[in-house]
Amino acid sequence: MTEGKALFTADHISRTFGSGRNLVTAVDHVSFELTEKEITTIVGESGSGKSTVARMVLGLLPVSAGRLTFDGQDVTKLSTTARIAYWRDVQAVFQDPFSSFNQFFTVRRLLNRSLRMLDRVSAKERLEEALGHVGMDLDVLDRFPHQLSGGQRQRIMIARALMLRPRLLIADEATSMLDASLRVNILNVLTDLRDQLGMTVLFITHDIGQACYLADKVLVMEKGVMVEQGPTDDVIFNPQHEYTQRLLADVPRLHESA
Amino acid sequence: MKPLLVAEDIHGVYHSGHTELHAVDHVSLSLEEGEVLGLAGESGSGKSTLGAIISLTARPPLYVENGTLQVDGEELVLDGSQRIPRTWRGSVVSLLPQGAMNSISPTMRVRDLVVDVVRAHDRRVKKSEAIDLARDRFATLGLPVRALDAYPHQLSGGMKQRTVTVISTLLNPRILIADEPTSALDVTSQKALIDMLLDMLEKKIMSGVIFITHDLPVLRTVSTRLAIMYRGKIVETGDTAEMVDDPQHPYTRALLGSVLVPEPKYRKIRIEGMKGFEDAPSTGRTS
Questions:
Q1: How far does B218 lie from chain A, in Å, by closest CA?
Q2: Which of A47, A179, A187 lies closest to B42 in CB terms?
C-alpha cells in the first residue's frame, strides 16, 4: 500500500485534568497521523485516554500541550467562528444513539438543523444523498426517535454528519451500544464511505475484533500513552508491545484455535 | 440426576393499553448442577424478560400468564395463582440485573449496601455480621477487601461489576441469573468477571448460572450449553462447542456469522450481518 497524504496530524499532544496532587495525565505526548482515505482505529481499554484524544481532535477540548494540524493548517487553537468552519470538515458520531436525539423532534427536523451550519444548500438533495449513503429510505424522515431501533438511530446520526460532507469523520465507540448483529451494518457503512467517497475515518473502540475488520491502521493506547501503531496486519497479528499482546489474549474467541 | 432448575412452558406478556406483546412465548429450559447456561439473542428477543420471570422479579406491565419453576424438587406455579415465597428471591434464585454497576447508590459506601441487602432477607442479622460475611467473601474470591469501604465512584467499572456480583450472591443462591454482566466492560475486565464467576461456581457459592448476553464469544468461553432466543422463543439449544461449530437453525447461523473476532480471515471478507432477519428486534408477537 502506498503511503497516502496525511489529512490530520497530532504532534505530541497531551491533556491533563486537575492540578497539584490531583493532577491526572489523561493523554501523554501522543503523536499520530490520519492518512487521507483511510480508516484509522484507536483501541484501548476504559480509561486509556482514547475518547479524550477524539475530543481534542474535534476541538471540543483544548490540548494542554502539543500541536494539531488539519490539511496543513494549524488547528490547535481555534476561535469560535474558525471552529464552526472546522466542523464543516470534521464531524463526529458518538457512542450513545439513545441520548443523542431530541426526543421531541422528528428525524427531518433534527437533520435540517444541522444544515444551518451551511449557507444556502438544497436541503432536500443533501438529505436524500446522506440517507442513501447509510441505506435508509426517505420515509424515516417523519418518524420520531422512539420509533427507530438503535441501529437505525446510529445510521441517522452518521447521515447527519455526512450531510455536511465532512472530510474527516470521527466515530467514538459508535457501535459499542449495539448488538453484534447491527454492529456489522454500521461498520459496512463506514467502509463503504471510505471506498466510495474517499472519506477519512477515525474510529475509536475497545473491541479489537471490530478494529481488525475495519481498520487500515491501528493505534493502541494504554493509560494515556500510545504504545504501538502501524498497519492493522502488523499490530494485530504480530503485536510487539506487551500490552497489545495482553489485550489480544483477553479477547474471547469463538473457536478454540485462533 | 435431577436437574437443578426446570422452567416449563413460561409465557410472559407485556400489557400496554389495548395491545399485548408476547415477549416470552411458551419457553421451557433446564439447568444442571454446576452448569452455566448461555442465553443469547438480539435486543428485543425476550432474553431479559425471561431472566426477569425466572428470577421472580417480573413486575407490571409484565404479566406471567403461564409457567412453572422447579428447583430442588420444589415446584412454584408462576401464573399468579400461588404466592411467591419471600425466601425464594435472593436465596434460591438471584438476579444480577442489567447495568448492575450503576445500581449501587452513589451516596452509600459499598458496605452499607451489603447491610441493606442482607437485612432485607433477615432482619435479625447484626450490621457487623453482614459486613463480616461480605469481607470473608471478598477475601475468598481474591478481591480487595477495602472496596467495601469505598464509594461507588472510587471503583472502576470492572471492580463495581464484580462487587455487585458478589453482593448479589451473598446469600448463596442456588441459581444466579446474570443479565448482560459483561456488556459494558472492556475485554480485560470481562475476563476478570468471567474468571470470578467460574471460581464462584467451583467454590459452590451458587450451583448454576444463567448468563444472558448478546455477546457470543463471551458465552463460548463461559457457558456449557447455549440457548438462542428469537422473537420470544428458544429456537435452538445444545452444547456450546457443538452449536458454535455446527449451528442448525438459520437464525443461529446468522447470529454467529455477524460476530467479529481478530482473526486473519476477517481482514478480507465482508460480513453481511443478519440477512433475512432484519426485523428481528421487533419482538415477539402482538395480539
A1: 6
A2: A179
Residue A226 lies in a domain: yes
Q: Which of A174, A45, A153, A140 is nearest to A101 (CA)?
A: A153
3-state secondary structure of A52: helix
Phi, psi dihedrals of residue B178, rounded to the nearest 5°: -105, 115
Residues 6+ apart with CB under 8 A from B150: B109, B110
- β-pairing, B19-31 vs B285-286, is antiparallel
Is pTM beyond 0.90? Reply is no
Q: How many domains does chain A have?
A: 1
CATH of the domain at B225: 3.40.50.300
Q: Domain total for chain B?
A: 1
What pLDDT, in 10s, does the model give residues A201-240? Answer: 999 998 898 999 999 999 999 999 999 999 999 999 999 9
pLDDT digits (tens, 9 = 90+) for B225-270: 999 999 899 999 999 999 999 999 999 998 888 888 888 888 878 8
Closest of A211, A158, A166 to residue A39, by C-alpha: A211
Q: Is the ipTM of this complex over 0.90?
A: no
First-to-last alpha carbon distance for chain B, in angstroms, is: 40
Q: Which of B262, B264, B277 is the closest to A208 by Cβ?
A: B262
Helix, strand or coil, per DSSP, at residue B230: strand
Distance (Å) from the alpha carbon of A148 to chain B's nearest alpha carbon: 10
Q: How do B36-40 and B62-71 pair as beta strands?
A: unpaired
- Gap between the Cα atoms of B29 and A133, Å rounded: 43
- Asked if residue B256 belongs to a domain, the reply is yes
Tally: H helices and E strands in chain B: 8, 11
Q: Which of B186, B220, B260 lies nearest to residue A213, judging by beta carbons?
A: B260
Chain B: residues touching A (Cβ < 8 Å) = 42-43, 156-158, 185-191, 214-218, 220-221, 241, 244-245, 254-256, 258-264, 266-267, 270-274, 277, 280-282
Q: Using an 8 Å Cβ cutoff, are A20 and A11 in contact?
A: no
Residue A146 lies in a domain: no
The residue range of the domain holding A230 is: 6-103+167-249
Which one-letter DSSP state was computed for residue B207? S
Contact call for residues B266 and A212 (beta carbons, < 8 A): yes
Residue linked to cell 452518521: A158
A247 in reach of chain B (CB within 8 A) = yes
φ/ψ (deg, to 5) at B100: -60, -30
